[in-house]
Specification:
There is one protein chain. Helices cover 26% and strands 23% of the residues. The protein has three helices and five strands. It has helices at 4-10, 54-71, 85-88, and strands spanning 17-20, 24-28, 36-42, 78-81, 97-101. The longest helix has 18 residues, at 54-71. Bound molecules: guanosine-5'-monophosphate and zinc ion (ZN).
């Protein structure tokens, strides 16, 4: 039984693709928290940051930068969020980096 993001990668659940290559997929979050809210995921099923290899993170860096450019949020700035495990508030257990922008973001309100 594959996870919800593996199903999105497989095309079994529809999503709005922004950018894709052999290793990664960027798509729009279904419940955006800002004018721009995308998710970047590896196509390999990695549960969370604690399982993420340095090699994969290194490959992901330019992919995230390219995604931000495609979204038109690169120049004005944006935020990358990665929730890890229970205390981090992770709900989908396939690692994903939120790219949030399109407005001046506030900081705080974690509790
Ligand atoms: P987490 O809380 O795990 O960091 O974030 C999970 C994110 O996945 C949430 O922002 C949620 O809106 C998004 N999400 C959950 N299910 C789907 C889906 O089926 N499609 C898309 N595009 N986003 C989803
Ligand atoms: Zn998965």
């Amino acid at each position: 039984m594959s996870c919800i993001f593996c199903k999105i990668i497989a095309g079994e659940i529809p999503s709005k693709t922004i950018h894709e290559n052999e290793d990664f997929l960027a798509f729009h979050d279904i419940n955006p928290q800002a004018p721009v809210h995308a998710l970047v995921i590896p196509k390999a099923h990695v549960v969370d940051f604690r399982e993420m290899s340095g090699e994969m993170m290194a490959k992901m860096t330019p992919f995230i930068q390219e995604t931000a450019k495609k979204l038109g949020i690169y120049e004005e700035g944006f935020r990358i969020v990665n929730n890890i495990g229970t205390n981090g508030g992770q709900e989908v257990f396939h690692i994903h980096f939120h790219l949030i922008g399109g407005a001046k973001l506030k900081w705080g309100n974690f509790l």
